[in-house]
Automatic annotation (TrEMBL):
Gene that this sequence comes from: coaE
Subcellular location as annotated: Cytoplasm
The protein's name: Dephospho-CoA kinase
Coiled-coil residue spans: none
MF (Gene Ontology): dephospho-CoA kinase activity
CDD domains xrefs: DPCK
Lineage, uppermost ranks: Bacteria, Pseudomonadati, Thermodesulfobacteriota, Desulfuromonadia, Geobacterales
Organism: Geomonas subterranea
């Protein structure tokens, strides 16, 4: 099974691109989704987060208050690293399980969509890395609109990741998402044909 790591900066369009690849028939594993699964009530990671950061990061019903925890960790790199120390091993374990199941099912190509593919050193687990790229100003705008964040909050989230220009240099393939959704769809379709479907036939 060929595993393509799909990464990029926050709000660069990884999920949007992955959904388009999925529509064309690719298998997709999304690290952000796994990150949500490992903090569901009853999971060990949630208990450790509450022990470490206090009850203020829990909602009254015991679920994780994502806004409260995000407010802490995106303003404090050492708190962010503590959180990653709790969640990343659990996320990696789930990703491995999902990849194993896809392999057993005879899947040809799987995308592993992860915002922190480079930062968390997961590149050795994938065969190649594709980067969804966006210029900084468009990134700030799309992030503010999607998550209802102030400019300052958007900038602190962006600052917690490797600069997009650096990620762009590290990708085998760069998907440029500065244009319209139609532009993105056209690039995905071309990559699907040239990099996945044709190679499979050949
Ligand atoms: C801090 C949390 C609760 C905030 O939740 P929220 O719903 O506001 O954001 P969400 O999880 O949807 O993430 C949105 C984006 O933020 C960025 N982001 C998330 N975690 C991190 C991090 N540790 N470092 C840098 N960027 C991050 C990613 O680009 C991600 O796509 C959440 O992001 C979290 O649990 N993060 C730690 C787990 C992690 O590292 N996830 C990234 C995927 S491995
Ligand atoms: N080409 C585009 N034109 C306009 N808006 C877009 C385009 N591509 C994506 N978007 C929007 O930009 C926002 C970010 O896209 P998306 O959620 O796919 O990014 P992401 O890289 O998965 O983000 P994250 O790292 O936060 O998970 C979304 O609101 C999405 O609808």
């Amino acid at each position: 099974m060929r595993i393509i790591g799909l990464t990029g900066g926050i709000a660069s369009g990884k999920t949007s691109a992955a959904q388009l690849f999925e529509k064309l028939g690719a298998a997709v594993i999304d690290a952000d989704q796994l990150a949500r699964e490992v903090v569901q009530p009853g999971e060990e990671a949630l208990a450790r987060i509450a022990e470490t950061f206090g009850d203020k990061v829990l909602n009254p019903d015991g679920t994780l208050n994502r806004a409260a925890l995000g407010g802490i960790v995106f303003a404090d790199p050492s708190a962010r690293r503590t959180l990653e120390g709790i969640t990343h091993p659990a996320i990696k374990k789930r990703a491995e399980e999902k990849l194993r199941r896809l392999r057993e099912a005879g899947t040809g190509t799987a995308f592993y969509v992860a915002p922190l593919l480079f930062e968390a050193g997961i590149t050795s687990r994938v065969h190649e890395v594709w980067v969804v790229y966006l210029d900084r100003e468009t990134q700030i705008e799309r992030l503010m609109v999607r998550d209802g964040l102030s400019r300052e909050a958007a900038l602190s989230r962006i600052a917690s990741q490797m600069p997009m220009e650096e990620k762009k240099k590290l990708g085998k393939i760069v998907i440029d998402n500065r244009g319209s959704r139609e532009d993105l769809e056209a690039q995905v379709l071309k990559l699907w044909r040239e990099e996945i479907a044709d190679r499979r036939q050949g």
